[in-house]
Amino acid sequence: MQANPNLTSYSAVLAKKYGDVGSPEREEFDNRARAYYMGLALQEARKEERITQVELARRTGTSKSYISRVENGLIDPTFSSFMKIVNALGLRLELTRSLA
Fold first, then answer.
1. CB 91 within 8 A of CB 43
2. Residue-wise over 31-51: b if at least 16 C-beta within 10 A, else e?
3. Coil, helix or strand at residue 91
4. What is the per-residue pLDDT for 14?
5. How far apart are CA 27 and CA 33, in angstroms?
6. How far apart are CA 95 and CA 88, in angstroms?
7. Domains and CATH numbers, the chain
8. Model-level pTM?
9. Which residues does 75 contact at the CB level (< 8 Å), separation at least 6?
10. What are phi and psi of 78, to 5 degrees?
């Protein structure tokens, strides 16, 4: 069976738009993507706990606008700030070795 020449991999699309893996442009894209997905996960956890951004900000000693920016992937919090949020949401962070 012949491959469809109109199909392309997502990796190829990202490489074309943001550069090859390891390039500064691709690293910037990857960092923004990680911040976005982390923010979504934290937002989902906050909503599951049925607390507001204001309450989460109070629990973490930050502001509502800071929590909003984290949840929207606009900023990438420091590890200590991330852990404050994780703990305030009653979550646990587990580090494991990669299989690769």
1. no
2. eeeebeebbeebbebbeeeeb
3. coil
4. 83
5. 10
6. 19
7. 17-88 (1.10.260.40)
8. 0.78
9. 35, 66, 69
10. -65, 165
- Owner of token pair 């646990």: 92
Q: Give the torsion sign (CA, 33, 39, 41, 85).
A: positive
List pLDDT tens digits, range 18-75. Answer: 788 889 898 999 999 999 999 999 999 999 999 999 999 999 999 999 999 999 999 9
The structure tokens 């490489």 sit at 15
Q: Which of 9-13, 30-34, 81-85 has the highest mean pLDDT?
A: 81-85
DSSP-derived secondary structure letter, 75: S
C-alpha 8/C-alpha 15 separation (Å) is 11
- How many CA atoms lie less than 13 Å away from 58 in the CB half-sphere? 5
